[in-house]
Amino acid sequence: MKASVGKKILLIFSIVIAINLVLSTVNLVSMDQMREKASEVSDKRLPSIIYVSEMRHLMDSLVTQELNYVNSTNASNRTEYALAMETILQQYHEVTKRYEAHLSIKEEKELFKQVTNEWNDYLALHEDIMAEGEANNLEKAESILRKASWNLSSININMNKLVELSEKRTEELSKESDTLFSTAKITNHFSCARINYFCNTRLLVISQSI
Q1: Residue of 122, 132, 115 lying closest to 89 (CA atoms)
Q2: pLDDT at residue 187, as a whole number
Q3: 170-201, pLDDT tens digit by residue?
Q4: What secondary structure does DSSP assign to 26-52, as a single string?
Q5: Which Pfam family, just one, is annotated for this protein (predicted)?
Q6: Other C-beta atoms within 10 Å of 45: how many?
Q7: Percentage of the chain surpassing pLDDT 70?
Q8: DSSP letter, residue 102
Q9: Using CA of residue 48, residue 51, residue 53, residue 59, what is the dihedral sign?
Q10: Which pLDDT does position 150 carry in this prediction?
Q11: Which residues, 6+ apart, have CB-to-CB distance to 128 below 8 Å?
């Protein structure tokens, strides 16, 4: 009789351990998924918004220097503005390379490609502005700059879309993490209640059979 009772108790604890292992695995998987989503927000979504903001700032800085360039009649000043623009263009190139490495959404990649193509079109006009400025055709250079402003409007629209995509994805990830956390919490609470009930009822049955 004692051996039989001992075996029953051992079986009960074996089942409890097995249930705990399964539930622990489920919770670990949920936690891992939550970490992945948090990592995407911190490593991709937030940096993407920052990079787009930097790109926009550099683009605005370039336009400011171009305006200074076409409105200046002093050759020395125009040289200074030209050097400043070279620096801005280099910084813009570096930021876009870092941003490109963070692209993970198909629509985001397509929009970035559009921005890149539009920026290349703008750079072609920028080269024309610089060429006309070097030839002292400042009125023509200013005319090209006004034309180039249309390209910038389209770039700004697509940059806004890129930011909206990152914000939307961040919101989705946040909701998914909340759902995982709630599910894990409910599962854990339910499992504890079920295990306690199972142990108490089995032990009661065993005690009555002794």
Answers
A1: 122
A2: 63
A3: 888 777 776 766 666 666 665 555 555 555 56
A4: HHHHHHHHHHHHHHHIIIIIHHHHHHH
A5: 4HB_MCP_1
A6: 22
A7: 67
A8: T
A9: negative
A10: 82
A11: 141, 144
Ramachandran area for residue 172 (φ above 0: left; ψ -120 to 50: alpha; else beta): alpha
- Residue 96 structure tokens: 């876009």
Which of helix, strand or coil describes residue 207? helix
Which residue range(s) make up the domain with 109? 2-209
148 touches 126 (CB < 8 A): yes
To the nearest 5 percent, what fractions of the chain are helix, strand and coil?
95, 0, 5
**For 40-52, how does the pLDDT look when each residue is reduced to its tens digit (9 = 90+)?**
777 778 888 899 9
Residues of the chain with pLDDT under 50: 1-2
First to last CA, the chain: 8
**Closest of 126, 139, 123, 155 to residue 57, by C-alpha:** 155
Q: Strand, coil or helix: what is 57?
A: helix
Number of domains in the chain: 1
Please list, residue by residue across 104-123, b when 16 or more beta carbons sit within 10 angstroms of its beta carbon and e when fewer do.
ebeebeebbeebeebbeebe
- How high is the pLDDT of residue 45? 80
